[in-house]
Amino acid sequence: MKKALNYLCAALLIFGAACQQKEKEGNKEATEEEVVISDDERMEWWRDAGFGMFIHWGAYAVPGGQRGDTICGGGAEWIMDKLDYTIEDYEKEVVAEFNPTDFDANKWVAMAKDAGMKYIVITSKHHDGFCLWDSKVTDYDIMDASDFKRDIIKELAEACEKEGIKFCFYHSIVDWHHPQAQAPLYPNYNAGQKDQTVFNPEFPKYYENYLKPQVQELLTNYGDIGVVWFDGDWIPDYTTEMGKEMYNMILDIQPRTIVNNRVDKGRNGMEGMDKEGNFAGDFGTPEQEIPDTGIDADWEACMTMNGSWGYKPSDTNWKSSEDLIQKLVDIVSKGGNFLLNVGPDPKGNFPPESVERLADMGKWTKVNGEAIYGAQASPYERPEWGRYTAKDGIVYAHVFEWPEDGQLVINTEIKPKKITLLADSATILEWDADQSVIMLPAEVVDPVATVIKIEY
Ligand code: FHN
Fold first, then answer.
1. Ligand 1 pocket: which of 309, 337, 340 to mutate (most atoms <8 Å of CB)?
2. Domain harbouring 429, CATH code
3. How high is the pLDDT of residue 183?
4. Ligand 1 within 6 A of CB of 287
5. Are residues 366 and 220 both part of a single domain?
6. Is 267 helix (H, G, I), strand (E, B) or coil?
7. What CA–CA distance (Å, rounded) separates 69 from 60?
8. Domain termination site, one of 305, 336, 371
9. In which domain, by residue range, is 241 found?
10. Residues 234-257: pLDDT tens digits?
């Protein structure tokens, strides 16, 4: 009897295990049948977002672009290369001093959200190779090489998640610290890699055993990633085969993630769009410039508020809030996104000049965001007095130059049915259909950009 019972228990155990296995397989089959996400579906949130925050932050904030009496030309984040630090000096004088005790991810996310930004792209690792997350692939990271010992990427990703801001990261293919990635000419890392005949023969090992594993851990351990923003695509060591493999690897891990065109080799310099050919990447990346006309492709212009991506107190060449708001309108009117940069200081604070501009942009987007978010380029030629954006059968006229006679000449193809001000929807504006003219209020509504909603 006992033996029979044993057999029965064994049989039940085996049957139970088989059921569990079937269920697992069943789930497995379910995941394999997961619906393929279309590019349009994947890009939708990004196309609607229009406005994001770029954050260039890392150990390079410590020197802030200055070494002794010498100031680094260009972006302060290039100081390791441009001011000839040896790796040992950089580790000792810069990385070991990076301890941003004022860092508060919630505060940063609140400022981005209040400015009207819908996503944040932070440098997980810039060209200096120092990692802002707890990497299992290296000790050259915030947990092991600095006294801060907090996972900055984790804290920012969680703060973004809490506030409904898409968390994204920038990642540098270039790495001046990793022995298999450095150019043989380092320092002066062939600054910008002008000499395309200079290779590091070890680079494929860096790509396989370091670059890919680090991108994998960032895509695996920090929740949903909105965008992976590659940079450093220009070095000849990095090939289009590597770029295409990297792109596919990212989508295998997170099928909804978007990847910029610097993942591959298609980018045509700083104007940022892809040259002819078949290259990986979901959007073009004009840098420090805005295309002259609209582009019928996905693109995002990235720009600094002063002249440096990284924190650089000596650079006081700040763009005005008015200029930044009009750049946002110009970019969206041409079908693009605006990725506006902040370079936090070594303690983890946004520079006051950045805080001021973000607040000004927030005041404007709170009133006029309807004409930015989800809006696209209009079919109408750019007017003299400003820009048009369009959404859901509505045209938004963004008036930069208020006509002295109060008569705003609009495109003759626009046949209005109702015209209001976004700043004051109760005010209905009159228009002369024959003259294609809108009668504006006597007083300028917003000297930076008044938005008129034209339903037609
Ligand atoms: O070399 C970088 C630079 O430091 C900065 O990160 C910009 C921002 O996109 N990208 C490269 C220059 O094109």
1. 309
2. 2.60.40.1180
3. 61
4. yes
5. yes
6. strand
7. 16
8. 371
9. 39-371
10. 988 899 999 999 999 999 999 999
